[in-house]
Amino acid sequence: MTSPFASLQKYAPYVLSIVRIVVAASFFEFGLEKYFDFPGPAHVDMTPIYYVQGVIEIVGGFLLLIGAFTRVVAFILSGDMAVAYFMVYFPRSFFPGQNGGLSALLYCFLFFYLVFAGGGAWSADRAILKQE
Amino acid sequence: MTSLFESWEKWSPQILSVVRIIAALCFLEHGLQKYFGFPSATPPGDALHYVQGVIEIAGGILLALGLFTRPVAFILAGDMAVAYFTQHLPKSFFPALNGGDAAILYCFVFFYIVFVGGGSWSVDRKIMHQG
Lengths: 132, 131
Hints:
Chain A is an all-alpha fold. Chain A has helices at 2-6, 12-36, 48-66, 70-89, 96-99, 102-117, 124-127. The interface between A and B is large, with 46 and 46 residues.
């Protein structure tokens, strides 16, 4: 059962780019909500820290979407989501299924992985900036 | 700065295992809520709800261990895709509005694991001697 899947390994860099794009687009969306009320109004009361967070989401999400400076950006976003998790969600409950921080946790670890793995086959880093 | 991070590339199989374990434990948690009310009970659902609970518990445990990682991840990625299209997409196209944000993230993480395997720290690698 495993061997037909193991032969898929050669496509992993392409799938990594797809994952990066989907995750970044989804992250970007939260920034758009905060600043432009698109696609819907922001989920939070817009205290000043959320305007800062909105900038991180829009700029970071966009750079990660196109795969420019992937590792550096992913490092910042991973830390950002870790702070969000411990500031906002963790005090409510230890369990991500209860504290509402499930997405933040998944974002955090996905971004953390991108720091190490890079942006994959399809990225501005590789296509234009000629770096990994 | 970028070159510093590039030198970390060699650790990516280990980090992949960490990501796999975290995602699997979170996924397992949803199943435990459905069947055991731990860490908190979810409202009772229809038969499909309990089938999903079995997928979450069995799949979550196997993936956390890294046992049969790729076939299991394949099933779970499909499972989350179905969940997204049947439960979340009808509410809105946008993941921030339809509540399916986590389902998308799970779906794509699992899908990536189908291709890349369970990473350095997995039962597949340590005991079964396969990737």
